[in-house]
Design a protein that fits this description.
Layout: H1 13-19, E1 26-29, E2 33-37, E3 45-51, H2 58-64, H3 66-83, E4 88-91, E5 107-111
Antiparallel strand pairs: 1-2, 2-3, 3-5, 4-5
Bound molecules: guanosine-5'-monophosphate and zinc ion (ZN).
Length: about 120
């Protein structure tokens, strides 16, 4: 089992997945980032990409560690090319009014089908 990072929060679902305390279908991992399939997929490929360190949302991560945010984006791109045809949407819900429900920053890789567009 992987060691919890120094920033891990005990009540955080995604910190528990990162630590291996909860199961997940992991599709890609780097030293600082993990990607795993969403439990309730909205498309043929629906993968969540998270930094191993706990940051609440993308605003916090962008301010704290832009290099890590860039690695999250890079892993998302790798996943989209490995699991789909490299055409994808990468979404961060930031804040409850934007639909964020898990407060450990994660981007959604959505791919594998023709996507429509609705901003809300
Ligand atoms: P948010 O609404 O915060 O942008 O996205 C949270 C996502 O986490 C949702 O798409 C939801 O389906 C997913 N999710 C919630 N609990 C779990 C879980 O235990 N395992 C996995 N793999 N995904 C989860
Ligand atoms: Zn966390």
């Amino acid at each position: 089992m992987e060691r919890m990072t120094d920033t891990a929060e005990t009540d955080c679902l995604f910190c528990k997945i990162v630590a291996g305390d909860l199961p997940a279908d992991v599709v890609e991992t780097t030293e600082r980032v993990v990607a795993f399939r969403d439990i309730d997929p909205q498309a043929p490929v629906h993968v969540l990409v998270v930094p191993k360190e706990h940051h609440g949302d993308v605003s916090v991560l962008a301010a704290a560690d832009p290099t890590l945010l860039a690695e999250v984006v890079s892993v998302a791109d790798t996943v989209a090319h490995d699991l789909a045809d490299g055409q994808y949407r990468f979404i961060f819900n930031s804040g409850p009014r934007a639909g964020q429900s898990v407060f450990h920053v994660h981007g959604h890789v959505i791919a594998g089908t023709q996507l429509g567009w609705s901003p809300a």
